[in-house]
Amino acid sequence: VIASSYLFLLMTPTRKSTYHSLFISNSLSDNASISHHLRTLTRRPHVAGSQANAEAASYVVSVFTSSNIPSHVASYEVALTYPFSRSLVLTNPPPQPPTTFTLHQETYEGDPYADVADEVVPTFHAYANSATVAAPVCYVNYGRVEDYFTLKENGVNVSGTIVLARHGKIYRGDIVKNAYDAGAVGVVIYSDRKDYGGGGEGGWFPEEKWLPPSGVQVGSVYRGLGDPTTPGWASGDECERLNKDEVEKGGEVPLIPSLPVSAADGEKIMRSVGGPVAEDDWQGSKDAPVYRLGPGPGILNLSYMGQDVIATIQNVIGVIEGAEEPDRFVILGNHRDAWTFGAVDPNSGTAALLEIAQRLGKLQKRGWRPRRTILLCNWEAEEYGLIGSTEWVEENREILSSRAVAYLNADCAVGGPGFNVRATPQLDELIKRATQQVKDPDNSSQSIYESWTSSSSSLFGRLGGGGSDYASFLQHVGIPAADIAFGGDIAGYPVYHSLYDDFVWMEKFGDPMFQRHVAAASVWGLSVKNLEDEISNKDINLSPIFKSIKELEKAAIKINNQRREIEASKSWITRKKDHLKVRELNDRLMMAERAFTDRDGLFGMSWHKHLIYGPSKHNDYGSQSFPGIDDAVKMAENLHSAESWHRVQHEVWRVSRVIKHASLVLVGQPT
């Protein structure tokens, strides 16, 4: 979405409307080309660090090169993990025999990818703790903090048990961390048919879009960003690294073992659990067994052994140099690596990125040059913990801090109908303008903006969590960012991270005509009151924040008026003096987001520097406004001490200071 708006600003002023119209026209777009890209990228499984993913990187380079876009590969040597051995055995109450789970996803009759299915990495959790444990089973619903409160209210103690949790509400790494905090010794996570199998009322893939009973959602349980052995600096061939003990002390990798399992296996385990009956919203689909809380009498023996390696990963970087401001970067990014075939996650976004590259290449042949430099970035090892993008940001932090205008991300670009966007607020208007100019791929009689506004009461989500590659740009450096998709949020399609996320699923259910991919390329290429209620009667003074927000409002109004004056005069197109004035104003807008960062970062998460938007403490996929204040409030409510509430006030002052800094940046004058 945003890139389309930036293209409008980047193009040569006297002919910008011509090239802008060309970019989104049918003459340059090609759903057959996007379909070809996606089929090529997903013909084999291509997990990070594999030869197959290196071949996919070569394909991206070849498309950039054929589009006359200079490109290079930025390689890093990073710590990855793969499964060496794993087993899961259920000891049932007598007289039932024990159950040994195969932990295998089944192909189907006529599966065109059956011949390469054995190349898929066995189901596992990346960075899971290697250990063998045996214990009674406890059911913990989605494994959220509030779920453990419910268990406690029901008199269920999970300490010393292996917990059974279902995917769907929070990041799997936080499921494992919450279990560890509650005293569990192991975790099994399954994809409930209620959430991923259509409620058990009908078929599944390939006849329907739903996850088959043997389908397993794999993924990482690492709660950090970047290579866990090089926190804060880039991973090279010869670089400083933390050892395993130091990594574990950092608190971002799990200290208990875990495994993902299928819906079928999850229900088998559930049948072995006794104890109190779970409440209604903890139950499964209509034909599922009755869900009980445990613990036991079923006992699980869980064994996992990982293989730790230092692997080479490759980021592909394409560069289109700007004609007027080559030292200013607009960055478009998507990752390439997938747990299996990756038709939705992430290669729907990769196909859109390649479509953008080809369109921009065609425009260059017609004489177009962008105003600012455009970087097209294809990351590796995102699935492990946003590693490729984070290492690149850490290596280029200083130059990005001074030169990057915005970062525009597409991960699961297409997973179904419906437009979804999350962004930092200063990009909202650009996104609106871009979506007004692109037709809805599912209803050509209206624009994406018209269908978007008619179907959603809340247009913009915010980027607080670590769900995709925007995180390092926004959270570490303070670069304005956006993430777009068709089909809802990142985990909103049923075959997410499973064997069945392949070209066939995309062709049948995700985007049958590949029109949403074309639209994604067009679109992509082109909370204080609640806080006040939460801490009422706690003697916390919020006036510093209110005062700084008023100053920010005044500064924003002033710079917006200055922008309108420049646009109205139109003299900046030809007069060098006014052109410099435009650059100076844009620099203030660019640097304002940086001002919301603090060098000390969030408490306990110092790598995260942004104090306005950040990850939720107990859900890395979640977004939290004023994360430092929110965390301090939750801690104070738990400790009930004067010192803890004093820390809340300190966090209020910290937020008020960065807001004031942003105001000063917008004004552009020292005090």
Automatic annotation (TrEMBL):
Residues 135-217 form the PA domain. It comes from the Eukaryota. GO terms for molecular function: carboxypeptidase activity; metal ion binding; metallopeptidase activity. This is Glutamate carboxypeptidase 2. It is found in: Membrane. Its cofactor is Zn(2+). GO terms for biological process: proteolysis. One of its GO terms (cellular component) is membrane. Belongs to the peptidase M28 family. M28B subfamily. Its main location: membrane. It is a single-pass type II membrane protein. It holds the Pfam family TFR_dimer. Keywords: Carboxypeptidase, Glycoprotein, Hydrolase, Membrane, Metal-binding, Metalloprotease, Protease, Signal-anchor, Transmembrane, Transmembrane helix, Zinc. The lineage of its organism: Eukaryota, Viridiplantae, Streptophyta, Embryophyta, Tracheophyta. Transmembrane segments: none annotated.
